[in-house]
Amino acid sequence: MADPKTYTATCSAPVNIAVIKYWGKRDTSLILPTNDSLSVTLDQDHLRSVTTASASAAFEAGDRLWLNGIEEQIKDSKRLLACIQECRKVRKSREEADASLAKMSDLPLHICSENNFPTAAGLASSASGFAALVATLASLYSLQPTLSTSDLSRIARQGSGSACRSLFGGFVAWQSGTSPDGSDSLAVEVAPKSHWPSLQALICVVSDAKKGTPSTAGMQQSVATSPLLQHRIKNVVPGRMVEMGKAVQAKDFDLFAEVTMNDSNNFHACALDTSPPIFYMNDTSRAIVQLIEEYNRSSIEETGKRRVAYTYDAGPNAVLYAEEKEVPTVLALVRHYFPNADFDDTFNLLGAGANASHRGAQAPAELPSGLPKTFNKDIIQVHQPGSVRRLIHTRVGDGPRTLHKAADADNVGDEKESLVGPDGLPLRLQRAKRV
Ligand SMILES: Nc1ncnc2c1ncn2[C@@H]1O[C@H](COP(=O)(O)OP(=O)(O)OP(=O)(O)O)[C@@H](O)[C@H]1O
Ligand SMILES: C[C@@](O)(CCOP(=O)(O)OP(=O)(O)O)CC(=O)O
């Protein structure tokens, strides 16, 4: 007889933004990359995916999944199927080895997931989304500690490559591996969040519309046509992984910034070297590069050190990394040249009054005081209000969290976090604040 209980787990997972970019697959089915990559996990108190998985014999229509309240067909997504099947397989083998374990692996699943930020808009929703899916199934099926976090990252990788890095907090490397079966292509922690907690990020949302060339297609176009990408894979990334590892271990922001910006520019050069060329950055993105380069140039002249790093994924949005003490100046600079961006000071960085949206206030913010003496304030023009639509301020964060777990009346965590109701259907869109 089928198990009459309903089992449920809910987890959240963070976004990560790479400082050494993943671009290209050597195996598109298993999602095996052509190079190592390294990322910073951002704080899920701000940007996150939350997923609930519920298993019950009562779910007669079989496995179902809702993303942001809309049902997706699991059977149409090889990536979703791979993650679900892998987790089930491990649970099943554990049930076969240990008769005392509940027989959950054959029960149909209802899965609900929500992102509290725009999906498929170049803000790495696939990374947090697939990390949350795998973390939730691992929690539901109690796969840890039999499986390590790196083992889970190997499963999440099959959902979206960059998702494997969101299984860890702090600073994370995805080792590309060499095995054709992908067994050594997994994420490892380079340093936890606590190692360098003062590192913060300012995401400059230039556009949150769905982008032109999705990363999955774009990177394979580059693999097929870009000679520069082959040079990047063989001669550029290996040295940069070593340098970045050193920068993180030593909390050397200057080196971190240099390598981050060089790698972003090299990745976008490879996109441009693709046939037909791919343009992810736009005029606003390039103006932000010019501004940060000038700020760093004048800072190096004064102190010998860079103060900010920019990096761009497969879209026009800039992610600026800076030490906490530098962020107010960086923010004021961006707000001066790109007026009228919505800004929510999540971490109360600027004290009272800073939370106010600047929409409608067309006048640019004052240039900050304390800029390096040789900073050329005419390096770029003050842009049209709203060229940068939104600023999201966040910081380095931890890995996935289990928010709630239950087997019928047996409850751990906060039941209110669950996205699936007692009827097995989506409860509501997340109550938590959307960003
Ligand atoms: N919470 C989630 N749970 C499961 N799958 C998700 C979730 N969020 C996003 N996805 C999957 O990821 C896809 C979006 O990935 P895509 O790579 O297009 O955008 P992105 O990750 O926001 O941008 P980028 O990878 O360029 O930073 C969605 O269409 C969906 O299939
Ligand atoms: C530019 C990137 O953000 C590319 C991310 O690519 P995805 O992980 O979205 O691609 P798939 O593996 O095909 O799902 C760089 C990075 O995150 O390392």
TrEMBL record:
Superkingdom field: Eukaryota
Molecular-function GO term, any one: ATP binding
Domain Diphosphomevalonate decarboxylase-like N-terminal, first and last residues per copy: 13-187
EC number: 4.1.1.33
Keyword ATP-binding: yes
Known catalytic reactions: (R)-5-diphosphomevalonate + ATP = isopentenyl diphosphate + ADP + phosphate + CO2
Annotated metabolic or biological route of this protein: Isoprenoid biosynthesis; isopentenyl diphosphate biosynthesis via mevalonate pathway; isopentenyl diphosphate from (R)-mevalonate: step 3/3
Keywords: ATP-binding, Lipid biosynthesis, Lipid metabolism, Lyase, Nucleotide-binding, Steroid biosynthesis, Steroid metabolism, Sterol biosynthesis, Sterol metabolism
Composition skew (Basic and acidic residues), residue ranges: 405-418
GO biological process: isopentenyl diphosphate biosynthetic process, mevalonate pathway; sterol biosynthetic process
Domain (Mvd1 C-terminal): residue spans on this chain: 201-402
Family recorded in the similarity comment: Belongs to the diphosphomevalonate decarboxylase family.
Annotated NCBIfam families: mevDPdecarb
Protein name: Diphosphomevalonate decarboxylase
Species the sequence originates in: Acaromyces ingoldii
